Structures are given as C-alpha cells and as structure tokens.
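Training component of the fellowship. As part of building independent skills, the fellow (R.M.) carried out the full modelling exercise for a liganded target. The chosen ligand was FE2/S2 (inorganic) cluster. The inputs are recorded below so that the supervisory panel can assess the work.
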Amino acid sequence: MERANHQRLIERLRLIDRTRSELVGASRPPDASAQGPAARPAFRVAAERYRSAAHCERERERLFGGLRGGTWVGPPRPIAGSASIAAGACVPIDVPGASLIVTRGADGAIRGFANACRHRATRLVDAPCSPKALVCPYHGWTYDLRGALIHVPHAEAFAGDDRRDLVALPVTERHGVVWLGADIAGYLGGVDGDLAALGLDRSIVWRSRQATPRCNWKLIMEAFLDVYHLRVLHRDSVYRFFLDATTLAEPVGPHVRAVTARRGLRAAPDELDATTDLRVLATPSYAVFPATTVVAHPDFTSVLTVYPLAADQTHYEHLMFVPAERAGETEHWDKSWALIEDTVFQREDLWVCEQVQRGLTAGTTDELLFGELESAVRWFHAAIDAGLGSEP
Ligand code: FES
Ligand SMILES: [Fe+2]
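Fellow's submitted model of the complex:
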C-alpha cells in the first residue's frame, strides 16, 4: 500500500480503537459515530445470485470474459509471478478459460500464446522447459519462441496454408506479477500505486495452490472483504494478531482498498515516521474487481484469484510472494504457508464458504444479510451490478 494511504488509514483506525476503548472503560453505551461510519440498514443479496446457473453464466460472460476468436476479452487476471519466467523459459499456464504458453525471450520480453498447435490443436508444452523451438509432438510443426511457425514437414501438402503462427495472447508484466490482459495500469486505476508499493517485483512465488471449493465465487470474495468473522472463525489461528472488528475500507473505482488493525497498533508510537513498519500495525488488503484479492501480510503477500466454474463451484488459486532475498528461509515460509493457506484459507475461509453454499442450496433462505461491519460488500455488489448491466 502506498505509504501515505497506509498511514492515513492507520491514523483513522487508531482513532476508532481509542474512542471505542474509552467508551468501554467508562461503561457508556457505544456511540455509533465512534465506531467508524454511521450504521446503515443491513444490505441484502438475493440467494438466487449464488445458486442460479443462468445468473452464473451471465456473470462469467459479462464480468470475466475470456478468449473470443483468439482474442482475450475481459478484465486482467494474475497468472504467475514475474520471477517464475526466466529468460529463455517456456512455461505452460492453465487457468479456467485459457491454456497458455508464456515465454521470455533473451531480450527479457514476455510473450503469451495459446498452448495449441495451429495444425490440429495438440497441446504443445506440458511442463516448464527452455527449448530452442517448440516442436509439436504430433506431426512436428515447429514454432520459434516468438510464436512464428518456422517448419512444417511436407509443407507442400498444405498448398500454401502453412503460414499459421501461434495465437498470441495478451500477457503483461506489472509490479512483479504476470497478468493475462493488457493495460494493467489503466485497469488497476487508483490501486496501481498501492500494488507497486508491495515490492512484488523483488519477490518470488514461493508456493502456490489451486483448489476447487464447492461454493459460489462471490462467497469467497465476500469472505476476504469481511473481517467481522475474525474473532469467531479464525479464533484459534490468526485472531491473536488482530484487534476485533477494527477495519476500514474504501472503494477505488470498482476495486476496494482495506486495512485491518493488528494488535501491534496499540503499542505503536504516537508519531509514525518513515522508519515505522506499517504492515505490522495494520494489514492492507485489496479486492481487485472482479475476482482477485491481495493480502499484504507483515512479511509476505498473498495474491488470490477465483473464477466461477459453476454457480456452486469455483476455481481458486493462491500465489504466495515472498521477498527474493529471503527465499532461503524455508522453515519460516513453511510455517507461514501452513498457517495462512492450509489453516486460515482452506480449513477456515473456504470451508465456511462451502457451509454457506450448503445453506443456500438447501433453499432455506431467500437472501444473505450484511451488516455495517461487512459494508465493503456493498461496493463489490455495486460493481457487479454495473458490470452485469440491466438487460437480462
Ligand atoms: S497437430 Fe501439431 S503438427 Fe499436427
Ligand atoms: Fe477469513
């Protein structure tokens, strides 16, 4: 997070925490104005939005896009860490809706192609490699690392129809992340500077995981936008690091910027200077619309992207970025992964999202209810509504 933003939000968090503590100490009834924004009526979302196949299809079409006639249409999404693609490397990356080859030339430029031969669509690369050329295992059509078709055995058999280069896909590096999409800065808008400040361009992806939780994709985004659940769902894992329900969030275009107060905030000096490590005082997080969440833990960063496979099934990917100069601290990062990914995300957040989906699927409710502490969800749904448009 850009330091000025982080510090501004920390000062506001501190005010909320101090005012609330004084009120509790004086046994006075809580004053809503001291708790942050004034309380508003609860926000409701129709249950059908989480269980309707037709609605899911509409979201996929209008919010996520995909490959259309060889062109990528839709918002950018993170697919790898920059450091994972070395010069001369050729890496297959499969995400829902796209199967890519990502290469980095000797010039350092990164390129993306559809991982399919232009003859009869055979998958060309199945594991990371550093080849001189890409040779299709079926009939031997051969491409250079810029995607140009350079050899066709018995080319005369194609009567001039042999100028078929690989289908190029827009793959862009920004802030240490490889994105599927173009104009990442324009898309990130007001959070572009915040993501730059995370230092992911000096980090490596230390570990990653893909999973397919049995729940709607929005439930996962909502779980990451909500810290109301910290004290209960994460009671035995990470609640010990945080203050209860002390969070601030603000919309930034369709995205959301948030900070959650850590217990270290109470011990922080009154004057925060340039040497203060702000990430130990409050954890920044972002919802990058529609389906990427970034969490800046004190010494590493989680980049989480989801994609709807069905109304009740989601593709989930977690990229764990750690500072490159600390990549050798295996035991430390193993512990962090076990706590954050294995326990907090998998066994707590994704588990509870599946429990919500079970409640929805059982048909016992027509709506989900969100209170003031979950109000960032309103902006998320406003961006969804804007993206879906009004026509059916
Ligand atoms: S499918 Fe690739 S060469 Fe035939
Ligand atoms: Fe959580």
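The panel noted the following from the submitted structure. The chain has a mean pLDDT of 91. Residues 117, 119-120, 122, 136, 138-141 surround FE2/S2 (inorganic) cluster (ligand 1) (CB under 6 Å).
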